[in-house]
Amino acid sequence: MTIAFISHGGGPLPLLGDPGHQEMVEHLNYLAKIIQRPKEILVISAHWESNTFTITSGAKPDIIYDYYGFPNESYQLQYPVSGSPDLASQVHSAIKNQALPATLDADRGFDHGLWVPLTLMYPNADIPCVQLSLHESLDPKLHWQLGKALQDLNRPDRLILGSGFSFHNMKGFFEQPSTKAMQDANSSFETWLTETLLTKPLNAEEQQSRLFDWSSAPGARMSHPREEHLIPLHVCFGAAQRSADEHFAVSILNRQSSTFLWH
């Protein structure tokens, strides 16, 4: 099973030729080429929170334009991918088997945390997808437990995709000029993340402890005033239970960001 945490950019901008996303576009094109092509994809998106872990179970979910204030063309974008009720049922069972709260939702569509990056990775929209919500508590340990539950889904032809952002401070993206404090926070937190997930002397328990206490890391709260874009990483690490195999540094909107890959 391939597991990847990606930084998915700003709304639909990666699909609109925005120069601040060019490196991200090239990176996701490349990422799709170096991992095994999956037959099914499970996406944990930063853009869906619920009071229970909720799983899309429809056979043909609509896409959701869950962003505001963008050009008209951004509301005409399409990604006509199928759902997978069978995979949704397996995800539901895996979560319930670990005594975690879970429910199926046959009506919920796919938000842009799924279809924007997948448009870049798999533009033919020919790989069935399921989307899984975050829990509204955003509790790091709970989401690590969720990831651990997803180990039951381990098959070589599946991709678990944590779709978030390793830096997510909206003011920080657009401040002009960029302050040294914001630059330092971004750099410090990216360094801490990379050390946590790639440093070999750390065992899984030590990595887990650091991720649970992520808000104490250098630059943490300036990088994530609210942590919904980081928490998909906790799910990915919970599913992997080990150091990442690869790290990719990607500049998005002039900020450092990361992809972590287990394969």
TrEMBL record:
GO terms for molecular function: ferrous iron binding; oxidoreductase activity, acting on single donors with incorporation of molecular oxygen, incorporation of two atoms of oxygen; zinc ion binding. Residues 36-243 form the Extradiol ring-cleavage dioxygenase class III enzyme subunit B domain. Its EC number is 1.13.-.-. Its cofactor is Zn(2+). It is an enzyme of class 1 (oxidoreductase). Belongs to the DODA-type extradiol aromatic ring-opening dioxygenase family. This is Class III extradiol ring-cleavage dioxygenase.
